[in-house]
Amino acid sequence: MDKSLFRYIWKHSKRDQLIVCAVVVASQPFYFLSLDLPRQIVNQAIQGEAFRDGNTTAPFLHLGFTLPEWLGGQSIQIFEGFQLSRVGLLFGLSCLFLLFVIINGGFKYWVNVAKGILGERMLRRLRFDLFNMVLRFTPSALRTVKSSETATIIKDEVEPIGGFIGDAFITPVFLSLQAMTALFFIVVQNMWLGLLALGVVGIQLIIIPRLRRELLRLGRERQLASRELAGRVAEVLDGIEVVHVHNAYGWERAEIGQRLYTLFDIRVKIYNRKFVVKFLNNFLSQLTPFFFYAIGGYFALRGTLDIGQLVAVISAYRELPPPLKELIDWDQQRLDVQVKYDQVTQHFSEDRLGPQALIEARKAEEADEPLTGLMAAEEIRVSDSHGGMIIDNASFSLELPASVALIGGGSPAASIMARIIARRMPEFGGQIRIGERDLMQLPPSVAGRRIAYAGIDPILFPGSIRDNLVYGLRLKPLGMSEGDKREAERRIAEAIRTGNPVESITDQWIDYERVGAKDEQDLDRILVDLLDRIGMGNEIYMFGLAGWINPERHPELAERLVEARRRLRETFQANGMADLVEPFDAERYNDQATIAENLLFGVPTSPEFTGRNLADNTEFRSAIDKAGLTDDLVRMGLQIAETMTEIFQGLPPGHSLFEQFSFVGAEELPEFEAILRRQASQDAAGLTREDQTRLLSLPLAYVESRHRLGLLDDALKERLVEARSHVRKTIEMADIAGVEFYDPEAICSAAPLRDNLLFGRVSYRVANARVRVSEAISTVVRELGLLQDIKCVGLDHQVGTAGRLLTPQERTSINLVRCLVKRPDIMVVDGALAPFDEARNLQMTELLLELFDEQSLFMVLPNDRQAGSFDFQMRFRDGQISTERSAGPTPKGEQPEPEASQTIEGEVA
Fold first, then answer.
1. Residue spans of alpha helices (H) in 741-837
2. According to Swiss-Prot or TrEMBL, what is its membrane topology (predicted)?
3. Between residues 469 and 146, which one has the greater pLDDT?
């Protein structure tokens, strides 16, 4: 980045800056005229100077001028104007003053909007430039740079810089011209008053900025302290498990408290200095009117200054302090922003950045050539942090494609060489060539397509499993439709003006043909097949059962799932398993479902109809009031509250009974005990609405077969079933899309796929019911050929932040498939199989060797036990590298048999 903020701004926005400055200059004549009009109103209309010679009328809007004597002194009339009476002239000049006020306000409005837009465009450019440099951080820089601090800089710290960019050139021009126009007008009226105002202004412009230098230093300290606070909070959040394990709460609280005190202390110093400067500035601003009233009044008494001129001077000076104050504030903001900009440029210094994207000067067909041929490494040198040589002038050569086992023997050299081959470690001496091409000089686009790297710590981004699997396929957009192009014209124009990419994430970024797929659905099948082979088939199937589908997007799958629902019901009936699942029936109460679900007979799609919000929902309460159920349910809530307070009396929080009876949390017991005490002397109808709502929430979560408190009889069940129609009608009449109602002939998009297949609830009364139901579902799914489709639904499963919703084995599997799906020429595996046990590790190694039979596979191994299956064995000892061809693959019979539960092919549980 440019070291000078003003140079950076001018380089990227000079055209817009000049246009706005031109408008500012054009506005000054109107501003000058608005300053002169008060004098004309007082002198000509109010005091009557225009009517001094006995004239009853005076010209209004007379336009003309007289040439200088040396040009002949001729008077030129442009417009004679209108003849108006004294009252007419007063109102005419006043309306003209109002017109100029509107015109000047219009100029200010346009300039401010233009500045704002300009600032936002430059802020967008600045943030994108910084993010672009984040992508260029070297691996060594990434080890020292805190991600939270970098994110804070891009998000928050450049915000004031963006706000200043629009003011960088326009504001000083605008304010300076306004101040000079006002000063010039005062000098024209009276030279002495003008010089006096100029002297006070000079003092303000010299003293105030000097006094504010300490504020700059304190502001710099505050910014650094705030950034360090954000970084420390992020560190604690990342290591919160260690804090819990070692009970370090007190230490962390004390440290954050100390940092907050430091910020507080700096802020107090800033406030003290800031308001001292503000007091002095306001005093100097009010000192000039004192001189105007005293000295100007003296001149007026002596007759050397008329009243109109004095009024105009005072009125003009009222316009002078605001631009001067804003100009001083602008100078303060300039210095403050320059400090922030300097700190930003230091954070993104050149020594932390790798080279910009290498220019792909080669022809496309040459750049896309496979990475095959002789790989020759010459004089490779890598040192540790203490200067010791890990690899010292080592060389090797081998023919690609090949499978290579990198055996470190306890040394980090093997892992370092793997990272060098994967281009993840550019800081090394020597050279590696593949054919005639230098490995480190390959264009990033070529390396991204041709090389894959799976390390020990897989990195997943928030989103779905599918998003992470196809991440390596999103290399460049392949185009968009004409309709999209027309809609994107404004976005593309803004992108060009701000130096942002014109591509959109809505474009098609995946080249399906390159990965051997016809379309998106075919790519999903490829992904599922790879997940099956890598051993994650069962997990992706379970994710699919827990996922959702949209019947409008997948109508054929929705029809097949409805057919599977019927087949599953027939299977239950035929095999004597009908008691395992109680189906949803619009005419019957479902004992395995909650009272809320029985009343809604559907799945909530809005928070207003979920959990305890339902008890306070206006439409729902209205419906159960009409059905006469409110008092009964509130009384049931009282019974549940009494029972729960008795059961939980004296139990510690976290006891298993709290999980079984999920009505009340341990922290809520005192609240319900208070409600019971208030109710002791009155019936349910006498309770407040708030108490009724709290009690009503308890039975809505009640399941008779699970909680077994004996609170539901057949009569109440019939009334609850009858109330369904009232609830549905009330919700539909209110036109609220809060519940998707059950339909036995359709898929409920708000319910998980498993629930759609069952269309009922598994019985709590039958032992081992869930396992038997899962087996029956798996059988029907296989018979109807739905297994692949359900696994494709599982690709929509969210992985969470950094993949934390997945197990380490699942994260590793997804990372490997992400590498495999792009079909790289060179695959580097560096500790990626560590989460698996030895048997699974061996199976996955054999699978990788099979998949990369025609490509190159480099794999770091801890010992020689699996090295015999590779074409080459690369050993590291005493800083040297020795490469030898394997005698041949280890016979299958000599390899340990995997356990029966560790299958590479994913099986449906």
1. 753-758, 769-783, 787-794, 808-821
2. Multi-pass membrane protein
3. 469
Amino acid at 141: A
CATH number (domain holding residue 282): 1.20.1560.10
What is the separation, in whole angstroms, between the first and last Cα of the chain?
Answer: 56
Using CA atoms, how far residue 517 sits from 199, 448, 511, in Å, is: 79, 20, 9
- Please check whether residues 317 and 259 belong to one and the same domain: yes
Check residue 860 and give its pLDDT: 93
- Residue 877 contacts residue 391 (beta carbons within 8 Å): no
Query: For residue 270, what pLDDT is reported?
Result: 81
The answer to whether residue 897 scores a pLDDT higher than 60 is: no
pLDDT reading at 896 higher than 80: no
Provide the 3-class DSSP secondary structure of residue 338.
helix
Residue range 103-132: mean pLDDT, rounded:
85
Number of domains the chain contains:
3
Backbone angles phi, psi at 300, to 5 degrees: -65, -40
More confident residue, 188 or 80: 80
Other beta carbons within 10 Å of 466: 18
Q: Which residue has the higher pLDDT, 682 or 404?
A: 404
347/382 same-domain check: no
| Nearest CA-CA partner of 381 in 425, 422, 351, 424 | 425
Tokens at residue 803, please? 């993949």
Residues 125 and 156 in one domain: yes
Q: 733 Cβ partners below 8 Å, 6+ apart? A: none
- Between CA 263 and CA 308 the distance in angstroms is 53
CB atoms within 10 A of CB 598: 22
**Largest CA-CA distance found in the chain, in angstroms, rounded:** 128
Q: What is the mean pLDDT of the chain?
A: 80
If asked whether residues 88 and 234 sit together in one domain, one would say: yes
Q: Which range, 8-17, 30-39, 655-664, 722-731, has the best average confidence (pLDDT)?
A: 722-731
Query: Would you say residue 560 lies in a domain?
Result: no
Would you call 749 helix, strand, or coil by DSSP? Answer: coil
Structure tokens at 539: 């997990």
Asked if residue 185 is part of any domain, the answer here is yes
The pTM (predicted TM-score) of the whole model is: 0.71
Residues of the chain with pLDDT > 70, as a percent, come to 81
Pull the structure tokens for residue 362.
Answer: 């080669």
Tell me the residue type at 433. Answer: R
CA 874 to chain centre: 44
Q: What is the dihedral angle through the alpha carbons of 582, 588, 591, 594, rounded to the nearest 10 degrees?
A: 110
- Give 652's pLDDT tier (boundaries 50, 70, 90): low
Which of the 8 DSSP states describes residue 861?
Answer: E
- DSSP lists the bridge partners of residue 380 as 394
Q: Which helix (H) or strand (E) holds 391?
A: strand 389-400
Residues with Cβ within 8 Å of 76's Cβ and at least 6 positions away in sequence, in order, are 64, 65, 66, 67
Model confidence pLDDT, tens digit, residues 57-106: 777 777 666 666 666 667 777 777 778 887 888 888 888 888 888 988 88
